[in-house]
Amino acid sequence: MIEFKVPDLGEGIDSADIVSVLVKEGHVIEPEQNVLELETGKAVVELPCPDGGRVLKVHVKPGDKVTPGQTLLSLEPLEGAKPAPKAEEPAEEPEAAAEPAPEPQPESEPARAAEPEPTPEPAPAPVHREDSHKRPAPAGPATRKLARELGVDLHKVSGSGPGGRITAEDVRGYVKKIASSAASGGAAFAEVPPLPDFSRFGEVNKKPLGAIRRATGENVSLAWRTIPHVTQHDKADVTELESARKRFNEGRDSSEKITMTVLLVKAVLAALRAFPHFNASIDPGGGQLILKNYYNVGVAVDTEHGLLVPVIKNVDRKSVLEISSELGDLAERAKLRKLVPEEMQGGTFTISNLGGIGGTGFTPIVNWPEVAILGVSRSAWEYVPGEDGPEERLMMPLSLSYDHRAIDGADAARFARRLSEVLEDPIRLLIEG
Question: Is 404 an active-site residue?
């Protein structure tokens, strides 16, 4: 019998929700056939089974939460068929109770030169930066990586998993607790009080939060608690740029048209080049600002399931038309929940354009671990001073939120002004973007 189990879900992902089961008991499947749909954080992915055979038992159903190593299907190999070879699983770090500690010897007893020294336990890899005198904390590689990025000592985190195993959620919870304590002057972390019984006042309906909504809540909560936010507001005169955009789009198919968001990506690139510390992340543990020599711009996409932020990689190497095509594809697949996790990772700066909906300004939350995010509201015609008196111009509201640990207010104002200047001159956008 073959057991198909949940594989490693990727960095920082400790669990997933079953969206749908594509096979039933008794079905015969081919190797690498898709058998399940999993929702991991903000993405829905199809999961193929490496082995073929007859499905003896389906161990999960839609709505179940699963973790790596959990059995999904039991298969009976077909006569004469051999199971597909499994990729060797990476060795886990030794658990705290995996090997008994050697009994301490009395200090007065001399060492026996004739006997070989007992084989020491494997030391943690240097990148883990754990105290060599402590046993490794019980946590998987993804959780350890997250802890390193946040500067968290895993020995100080209480694990909620089986046998006290530390999960990514435990690490994030620890960071939130520390951040809340620091914000209140070191006071003890205040637990959220329980909700009142709303049904006392009238009829209520309960709707479970989807995985996308839960992931969004966790991310913005982490960002809000750990990043000192400030928002700089400005306006850009996009009269000429919008006119040029409309002329370019005349007679073109909808799939070939350029949106203002695409032009914003190029304008942001010009501003990031001028102010590299906006294209960075803070390492609180190491006391460093990590400057990135690549430009990956995330663009927030509104879907019926919640907010998704696909990332356009290496925008400095792509033309406006290439960015337009890629953004259109990413946005469409985001709405269909067909993005894979890698397409929402690696961003260095984020744009949230609400101009198509409305509003005159807002305060976007920085997309951790980035240090800045641009919010854009609906452009409106306004009278502004001109050489011959007031002129009517199309003005775009810009809202730049930033991490005050990395960016000062004066630089934020300069960044917003540089961005406005690029948007106000299509030729400058063409040259600098």
Answer: yes
Q: How far apart are CA 171 and CA 33, in angstroms?
A: 35
With bands split at pLDDT 50, 70 and 90, how would you rate the model's confidence at 28?
Answer: very high
Name the CATH superfamily, with its identifier, for domain 231-432. Chloramphenicol acetyltransferase-like domain (3.30.559.10)
CB 433 within 8 A of CB 422: yes
Region of poorest pLDDT, from 15-29, 80-94, 325-339: 80-94
Q: Which two tokens stand for residue 102?
A: 């050697």
Backbone angles phi, psi at 17, to 5 degrees: -105, 140
Lowest-confidence region among 43-47, 293-297, 378-382: 43-47
CATH of domain 137-193+209-226: 4.10.320.10
Half-sphere exposure for 369 (CA within 13 Å, toward CB): 17
Residue 270 confidence (pLDDT): 96
Distance CA 70, CA 7 (A): 8
- List, in sequence order, every beta strand (DSSP E) within 274-369: 280-283, 288-291, 297-299, 301-303, 306-308, 311-312, 349-353
Question: Is-cis flag, bond preceding 68, omega within 30?
Answer: no
Q: How far apart are the first and last CA of the chain?
A: 58
Identify the residue whose tokens are 């996409």. 301
d(CA 272, CA 168): 31
Task: Single out the residue of 237, 244, 242 nearest to residue 385, CA to CA.
Answer: 237
Arithmetic mean of pLDDT, 152-177: 83
| The model's pTM | 0.65
Nearby residues of 300 by Cβ (< 8 Å), 6 or more positions away: 307, 308, 309, 350, 351, 352, 353
Number of residues written out for the chain: 433
The residue ranges of every structural domain in the chain are 2-76, 137-193+209-226, 231-432
- Choice among 27, 128, 233, 404 that is catalytic: 404
Pair 264, 400: CB distance under 8 Å: no
Q: Which CATH number fits domain 2-76: 2.40.50.100, 2.60.40.1220, 3.40.50.2300, 1.10.10.400?
A: 2.40.50.100
Angstrom CA distances, 306 to 172, 301, 370, stand at: 21, 9, 21
Could you tell me which of 105, 106, 108, 131 has the C-alpha nearest to residue 118? 105
The 10s digit of each residue's pLDDT in 125-137 is 433 334 434 567 8
- What's the chain's average pLDDT? 82
Q: How far, in Å, CA of 263 to CA of 252, rounded? A: 17
